Amino acid sequence: MSTEVGVKVLWLYRRIGMAALAWFVSISIIFVLARLAPGNPAGLLLSQFLQQGIPYTQAVAMVRAYLGFSPEEPILQSYIRFVQNLFHGDLGMSIVYRTPVAKIVAAALAWT
Question: Is residue 41 a contact partner of residue 33, using CB atoms and an 8 Å limit?
């Protein structure tokens, strides 16, 4: 009887470990794809501010204020902040809709 329980506990630990690994890999892939995709939102917003004649340091500060991060932030620091924000439910701001992404997802969740 105890070997059956041990096998079930081992199976449960293995499943939890695989779920955590799948979560980590999928979050990392999302981060990398968003970071490497052409048309980086932070870069686009920064270039729009620069084209309007705003000085570079002020434009970076404006991007940081709007998006919540700096386009010059190191990638490791950006990844850690990204994961921390996910744990807090902060999915960022939508540039297109000018609203938090969590609200957009919550509105569409009823339809799924």
Answer: no
